[in-house]
């Protein structure tokens, strides 16, 4: 159990990649805070994971400073410590560049980038205080994206926010390195979550995804969770300021690949 007795906060973890990470952390022995704004889904996630280990749901809108402060306080009240933070909470808002509503831009940046900063700063302050009292340094893992590098014209706020997360990861890693606190990111490619479920029933959509994926398949959320466990563990003790891209080979690709028949 790689993360035995570690306390982890995973934001946006009621479903999707966040839930897969929370589940894997529990299976690795961690005590996990499931954080989300969807209370029904969050409670359901808590019930499912509580059957495997220790998990507690706490409502939190990461874009709101008071919510983040409450998240930290309730985590410490529940488990007495924080060792790991996974900044997974994220939203999208599509629109043409010329017509994009500024409110949509602000909403995405507030959750995806500002929320990542607020949670990281709050947890880092706790970790530094713990280190100064003789405790061990913890780690922060951000969910970036291949769209921190690549561009989708109809998803400007999302791409900009993930580019910001990539740079936030590097800057925070350098700032916190003197304390031994590691900060890294994961950059998923096409992962089978609710957002991509339509590719299973839409051959054209499936072909578009697979034509840019040399490995010829969509990734699974559990595969992202495996990377998170590595980054949270002592096996990654000398890794900081990095983004690990899990994209089936998409970023190195300079053309399209043949798609096999379904």
Automatic annotation (TrEMBL):
UniProt cross-references to PROSITE patterns, sorted A to Z: ADH_SHORT (PS00061)
Domain Ketoreductase positions: 6-189
Any single biological process term in GO: fatty acid biosynthetic process
MF term (GO), any: quinone binding
Coiled-coil ranges per UniProt: none
NCBIfam families, A to Z: PRK07231.1
Name this protein carries in UniProt: NAD(P)-dependent dehydrogenase, short-chain alcohol dehydrogenase family
Organism: Roseibium suaedae
């Amino acid at each position: 159990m790689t993360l035995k007795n570690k306390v982890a906060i995973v934001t946006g973890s009621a479903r999707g990649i966040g839930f897969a990470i929370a589940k894997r952390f529990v299976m690795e022995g961690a005590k996990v805070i499931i954080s989300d704004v969807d209370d029904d889904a969050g409670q359901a996630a808590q019930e499912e994971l509580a059957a495997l280990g220790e998990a507690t749901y706490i409502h939190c809108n990461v874009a709101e400073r008071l919510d983040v402060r409450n998240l930290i306080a309730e985590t410490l009240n529940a488990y007495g410590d924080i060792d790991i933070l996974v900044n997974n909470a994220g939203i999208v808002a599509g629109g043409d560049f010329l017509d994009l509503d500024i409110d949509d831009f602000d909403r995405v940046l507030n959750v995806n980038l500002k929320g990542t900063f607020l949670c990281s700063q709050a947890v880092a302050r706790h970790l530094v205080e713990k280190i100064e009292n003789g405790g061990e340094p913890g780690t922060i893992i951000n969910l970036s994206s291949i769209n921190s590098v690549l561009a989708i014209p109809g998803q400007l706020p999302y791409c900009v926010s993930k580019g910001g997360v990539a740079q936030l990861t590097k800057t925070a890693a350098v700032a916190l390195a003197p304390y031994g606190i590691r900060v890294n990111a994961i950059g998923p490619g096409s992962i089978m979550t609710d957002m991509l479920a339509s590719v299973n029933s839409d051959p054209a959509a499936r072909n578009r995804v697979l034509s840019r994926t040399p490995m010829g398949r969509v990734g699974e959320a559990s595969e992202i969770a495996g990377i998170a466990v590595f980054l949270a563990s002592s096996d990654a003790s000398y890794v900081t300021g990095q983004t690990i891209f899990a994209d089936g080979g998409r970023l190195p690709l300079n053309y399209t690949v043949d798609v096999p028949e379904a």
